[in-house]
Amino acid sequence: MPLETGQYDERLRETAIDSETSYRGAFLRVSRDRVRTPDGAEAGREYVCHPGAVVIVPILPDGRLLVEHQFRYPLRRVFVEFPAGKIDPGETIEACARRELEEEAGFTAQAWRHLGVMHPCIGYSDERIEVFLASGLQSVGQRLDEGEFLELDAVTPADFVAAVREGRITDGKSITAFFLAQPFLPA
């Protein structure tokens, strides 16, 4: 396998010497660690600790993909993205995916496929996002969380690609999820 990374693990590994929480919020915390680098020196590392999340690529019966328009405060604009959400304590990734599709999009799915995992912010966060494909959708009505506002839309896979290329879809998790789902999408 051309991109096997195991051969580099020991030569590049940093080991934690100590760790402290420098910020704890309701959702995220920030850790400040002291590490030993591969050359034996010490260095500091600060990173966001995230509980993990899921993103779902929902395929409607007509082959279009269900997307959401949602305002994202850190960038102060509306983004087009696939349904997604954080994993609650003790929740399996599958249960989280089912819950988020039902709450945000108002659908259940008859068929689920786990497509893989992505790490969106490897330089400053331990966040992982589990990617799912959902098909055989049935509408059950949205149950948005308090303070959550979004609108649904449907696009063909070709329109999704065009929107990415034109800069109208820039959400990294949705672009990665689409890439992983492509082999299973209708032509």
Question: Could you characterize what this model shows?
Answer:
This protein is an alpha+beta fold and 187 residues long. It has two domains: 6-49, no CATH class; 53-184, Nucleoside Triphosphate Pyrophosphohydrolase (Alpha-Beta Complex). 19% of the residues lie in helices and 41% in strands. The protein is built from four helices and ten strands; from the N terminus they run H-E-E-E-E-E-E-E-H-E-E-E-H-H. The protein has helices at residues 9-12, 93-105, 157-165, 172-181; strands at residues 15-24, 29-36, 42-49, 53-58, 65-72, 77-81, 84-86, 107-118, 129-139, 150-155. The strands form three sheets. It has a four-stranded mixed beta sheet with strand order 7-4-9-8, with helices on both faces. Strands 1-2-3 form a three-stranded antiparallel beta sheet, with no helix packed on it. Strand 2 (29-36) and strand 3 form a beta hairpin. The longest helix is centred in the middle third of the chain and has 13 residues, at 93-105. The radius of gyration is 19 Å and the shape is globular. The model has no long low-confidence stretch (mean pLDDT 94).
